[in-house]
Write a structure and sequence with these properties.
Elements: H1 2-18, H2 22-33, H3 37-53, H4 56-83, H5 88-91, H6 110-125, H7 130-146, H8 152-172
Length: about 180
């Protein structure tokens, strides 16, 4: 376990302190906010509303993304409170931090969970646009490390939970409305 923790900390420091530039500083803060509840809920509701008025495929995709988002977020919150892992900014010295809102615990990354739940749901619904959706989800995860609020293992766990719920919602939420 100590080896895993050491590798996690080493990779965190690489992505947080060694790779840096002003453009990435600005971009990472913006990208990290796109993994927030407000943004991810907003883009699922927007798809549902678009589906009500214009495209049925958006209604199905938005409904599945919303289900994946709700389920994965609930699991993420429960695990976060069970594990109680302190964030790197509370445990490590000499790291770069940015002014982003956080709660006390780190594992798994909620922003990453949400972005993968939504991104993978939309990638499954619209395969021609899967690359931008998956790239966005991955960038949200990277940004959480870059801004100093998550370890790489937090991001990996969040991406797995979000992806799992995207597939579950595809199976459970009907494709007709």
């Amino acid at each position: 376990m100590a080896t895993i923790r050491a590798g996690d900390e080493w990779l965190f420091r690489l992505l947080n302190t060694r790779i840096k530039c002003r453009l990435l500083d600005r971009l990472s803060v913006w990208v990290t906010h796109t993994g927030s509840a407000g943004f991810t809920i907003g883009i699922t509701i927007a798809a549902i509303l678009a589906g009500l008025y214009e495209r049925r495929s958006c209604l199905v995709a938005g409904s599945r993304a919303f289900a994946a988002l709700a389920g994965s977020s609930l699991v993420s919150l429960i695990v976060k409170r069970l594990v109680n892992r302190p964030r790197p900014i509370f445990r490590l010295e000499h790291i770069r931090t940015f002014n982003v809102p956080i709660c006390a615990y780190s594992f798994p990354s909620g922003h990453t969970t949400a972005s993968f739940a939504v991104g993978v749901s939309y990638a499954l619904a619209f395969p021609a646009y899967s690359l931008p959706w998956l790239l966005w989800a991955g960038l949200v995860g990277w940004s959480r490390i870059y801004v100093g609020v998550h370890y790489p293992s937090d991001v990996l766990a969040g991406s797995l939970v979000g992806t799992l719920f995207a597939y579950i919602s595809r199976l459970l939420v009907p494709g007709f409305f």
